[in-house]
Every structure is written in structure tokens, then in C-alpha cells.
Amino acid sequence: MVASNATETFIPAFIAVWLKLLAPDECYDEFFVKFNVLHVPCLKVLISKCLGYAIITGSFIVKVPQIIKIMKAQSGEGINLVSVTLELFAISAAWAYGAGHKYPFSAYGEAIFMAFQTVSISFLVFVYSNQLAKGLAYLSVYVGIMAFLLSPSAPLGLLAVLQACNIFTVSVSKLLQAATNYRNSSTGQLSVITVYLLLFGSTARIFTSIQETGDTMVVLTYVVAALCNSIVAAQFVYYWNSAGTNTNTSKKDL
After folding, report:
1. What is the protein's membrane topology class (predicted)?
2. Is the confidence at residue 250, as pLDDT, over 50?
3. pLDDT at residue 8 above 80?
4. Helix or strand or coil: residue 111?
5. Please, are residues 170 and 163 in contact by the beta-carbon 8 Å criterion?
6. 118, CA 20 to 30 Å: which among 35, 183, 192, 232?
7. What pLDDT is recorded for position 124?
8. Where are the beta strands (DSSP E) in 77-197?
9. Is pLDDT of 252 > 70?
10. Could you count the other beta carbons within 10 Å of the beta carbon of residue 225?
11. Tens digits of residue pLDDT in 121-174
12. CB of 172 within 8 A of CB of 86?
């Protein structure tokens, strides 16, 4: 099939394989065989795929600024560990749910990379609080749980329950961090780059989830995530010139 389409459209087979990641099945024919570039349903698929893979690409580094900032300061001050753990739960549940339901990788792939980075942040908070043993225990428990959730032994019903809990978990996670910022009158060691990338990602995921999964539970989770991320993002603007923020970090230290 690839060879045939590639011949009809003068597109080499190895390029056709990559193009089909963005325009699968009928949409490949519409765009590259019939040259119907204004086919609206396929344009939606193309936009969704491009956004999805852009989010996944960004997820490789989305929390790296946060990790660097903690390591540079050698402090997890201002990082609410309960909030980070709840966020890790939400990310990991989305990963397991997407994989378990065999959704397209472009619909949930960023959760994999964000999970590794988020658990690293939790571990660093333990390390810089002189609680290495607790940090190692935290990692061990997380790895064990994910090994089960990603295995064929994990019931789809359980994964659905975890995904349903995400709506509550995401909101509580972000609101806890927002409350910590409010109490400290500062965003502490939070990274403005990470926070705004998360806001962009959760907002874009509303569209891609509607397009690629049609799963109401997943869509609603990202709607809540976008709203809550916007609260934390707004706090950066509000506390940008606060004494607390300037004490903990330079404005240039993002």
C-alpha cells in the first residue's frame, strides 16, 4: 500500500511512512494521492497529529528547567511534595490509560517523558531535604506500581477508575501548589518556563483528545488541567516583583 501510494504521488516510500504518522489511512490518500488539501476532516486529523507530536517533543524538556533550577539552588523550597506526587499520579494514570486502551501514541505519549521528569523532581526534593532513604523508597514504590499498571494484568476497569480520579487529582495538585505560593507570597523554586509549557500542553491536549480519542473523561481532565495551570501561571505574573521571589531566585533564573 505504501509503495503504491508513493508511486502515484511520486513520494519515496520511506518518506510516505513518516507522512502517514501525520495523515494516516484515508487522509494520506486525500492529501497525497487526490491532492485534496482542503479536506476538512483530514485537516483536523493533521492539525491534531502535529499538535500531539509537538507536545510530545516538548515533553522531553518541559520539566528540565524545573529540575535544573532545583539542582542549581540545591533546594526544593516552595515545591509542594504532595502536589508533585498528585501530579505524578495524574500523569502516570493518563499514561497507563492511554496505553491500556491502545490509543494513538500521539494522544498520550508525553505522559511517559513527563512521568520520568516528575518523579525526578520528587526525588530531588527528598535528596535536598536530607531524606535520601525516603527518596529511594519513593522511587521503588513508583516503579513497582507502574510495572503493574502497564502490564496485561492491570484490569481496564481499574485504569478507567484511575483516569476518572484524574479530574479530582489534577485540580487538587495544582491548587495545593497555588496555595503554597500564596502562603509564601512567592513561586519559590518553580520554573516559569515549565509552568507555561504545561499550560500550553494541557490547552492543546483538549483539541487533540477530542480529535483522537473522543473520550469525554480524558477531555474533561485536560480542561481542568488547563484551568488550574492558568492559576499557577497567573501567580508568576502577580508575584514576579515580590520580595519573596527575589529572595529565592533572580527573575532571570527561569
Report:
1. Multi-pass membrane protein
2. no
3. no
4. helix
5. no
6. 183
7. 95
8. none
9. no
10. 27
11. 999 999 999 999 999 999 999 999 999 999 999 999 999 999 889 888 888 888
12. yes
For residues 12 and 249, give the distance between their C-alpha atoms in angstroms, rounded to a whole number: 52
Contact, 42 vs 53, CB < 8 A?
no
Q: Which of 138, 247, 127 is closest to 189 using CA atoms? A: 247
229's grid cell: 495551570
pLDDT in tens, 94-121: 999 999 999 888 888 989 999 999 999 9
- pLDDT of 179 above 80: yes
Buried residues in 80-94 as b, exposed as e (16+ CB within 10 A): beebbbbbbbbbbbb
Residue in this structure with the C-alpha cell 523554586, named with its chain if needed: 189
Grid coordinates of 138: 519513593
Per-domain residue ranges of the chain: 2-38, 50-248
Could you tell me the pLDDT band of residue 245, with boundaries at 50, 70 and 90? very low
Mean of the pLDDT values across residues 203-216? 88
Burial class for 47, CB neighbours closer than 10 Å (0-12, 13-18, 19+) = middle
Q: What type of residue is 40?
A: V
185 Cα distance to chain centroid: 27
C-alpha cell at 253: 533564573
CA-based Rg of the chain, rounded to a whole angstrom? 21
**Is-contact 242 204, C-beta < 8 A?**
no
Tell the residue number behind the cell numbers 510495572, with chain if given. 147
How many Cα atoms are found within 13 Å in the side-chain-facing hemisphere of 224?
Answer: 21
Q: What angle do CA 56, 146, 197 make, to 5 degrees?
A: 25
